[in-house]
Design goal:
Blueprint (H helix, E strand, L loop, with lengths): L2 E8 L1 H5 L3 H10 L3 E8 L3 H7 L9 H8 L4 E9 L1 H9 L12 H5 L8 E3 L3 H11 L8
Antiparallel strand pairs: 1-3, 1-4, 2-3
Length: 140
């Protein structure tokens, strides 16, 4: 299988606790390579745009508030079957359901503050990558 790309966010709960390196290490150990990365303070407009798919859900406002509460690290990851590989290493959304050895089992504080986001499909990975990165920022 050829290498593909996916998108990842290290969320404010993890950056606040200085876990960027630890999370990135777990991603790399899972066979993913960081081909673009930047630490940003997401604006309200960015967060609302990125999570627009959830705009009608009751948790939307809290999600946006959380994502702008501190810096995040947005990354493009590359590897064989990158979306699946990333989702496997992230673990279940609810950290109490996550398997041992996953990022969320190790670092998530709660179902809301679950340390990482990852694309759920190749199609969404492209959309999410394009939302935060220009092609010239991705150096494989």
């Amino acid at each position: 299988m050829a290498a593909t790309r996916t998108f990842s966010i290290i969320k404010p709960d993890a950056t606040r606790r200085n876990l960027t390196g630890a999370v990135t290490k777990m991603l790399e150990e899972a066979g993913l390579r960081v081909v673009a990365s930047k630490r940003i303070q997401m604006s309200r407009e960015q967060a609302e745009g990125f999570y627009a798919v959830h705009s009608e859900r009751p948790f939307f406002g809290d999600l946006v508030d959380f994502m702008i509460s501190g810096p995040v690290v947005v990354q493009v990851l590359e590897g064989e079957d990158a979306v699946k590989r990333n989702r496997d290493v992230m673990g279940a959304t609810n950290p109490s359901d996550a398997d041992e050895g996953t990022i969320r089992k190790a670092y998530a504080e709660s179902i809301e503050a679950n340390s990482v986001h990852g694309s759920d499909s190749d199609e969404n990975a492209k959309i999410e990558i394009d939302f935060f990165f220009k092609p010239e920022e991705i150096v494989g």
